[in-house]
Amino acid sequence: MEKLRRRLEGAEKALETLREILREPYSVIVRDATIQRFEYTFEIFWKLVKEYLYNHEGIECNSPKSCFREALSVGLLNEEQAITCLEMTDDRNLTSHTYVEEVAESIYEKMQDYYHLMDTVFNLTKKEFGKIS
Fold first, then answer.
1. All domains in the chain, ordered by first residue
2. Which one, 5, 12, 14, 79, has least CB within 10 Å?
3. What angle separates helix 64-73 from helix 28-52, to the nearest 10 degrees?
4. CA separation for the pair 21, 26 (Å, rounded)
5. Cα–Cα dist 30/48, whole Å
6. pLDDT per residue over 92-102, tens digit each?
7. Is this structure's pTM higher than 0.85?
């Protein structure tokens, strides 16, 4: 349970940094900084989902996509959210190619939606954590 609490704290901080950069007017520097913040926020986010599933549902998963599929199966995510999480995983895997302008622009254009989805799931897990802690 302590690990889940730490994951929640880390996710909250990471989401705040992503929210902060998303308020900035567009520039190539802001785009690149946004993508970097997305990378670490995504890593914390999927590990939060993983820990939540283990603590709350007794489910073990070891990859982002398997965790998002399990989150769908237990109702933490709806189908549309799960699909977006799978797409977000693919985009996270593409972030090492952001030197390709089209890739960077494509990922950046999805950031608001990704942020809102991660924030929504974060708030659900935080609420459920409050019930079990």
1. 2-132 (1.20.120.330)
2. 79
3. 60
4. 10
5. 26
6. 999 987 778 99
7. yes
